[in-house]
Amino acid sequence: MLAGRGRVNVGMPIHEWIDEATDGSNIRVIPVDKQIAEYAGRLPDIHGDPMDRIIIATSLLQEATLVTKDHWIRQYPDLKTLWE
Q1: Of 5, 8, 17, 82, whose CB neighbour count within 10 A is largest?
Q2: What pLDDT was estimated at residue 77?
Q3: b or e along 43-57 (b: 16 or more beta carbons within 10 Å of the residue's beta carbon)?
């Protein structure tokens, strides 16, 4: 969205940037499925942004550490976060 609005310039079409950023790396692209969407909707009402809630739900379901400086995201119980 930021690239589409001109707030971030990645120097190429966004789909190419995503491919370049993830191909051959340890980054896994996880599609938003029904389980993630439902879990995001059931999260405690700490953070109201729907996209952040999807990120939180994905991290919790994948048992992954989420790198974020967002104070509200870090308030979710059982969510492993990292920011130094």
Answers
A1: 17
A2: 92
A3: beeebeeeebbbbbb
Same domain, 9 and 25: yes
* Tokens found for residue 74: 């870090």
The model's confidence at residue 39, banded by pLDDT at 50, 70 and 90, is very high
Question: Does one domain contain both 20 and 39?
Answer: no
Cβ pair 59, 75 in contact under 8 A = no
- Has residue 84 got a pLDDT over 70? no
45, 73: one domain: yes
Q: How far is CA 30 from CA 27, 46, 70, in A?
A: 9, 24, 21
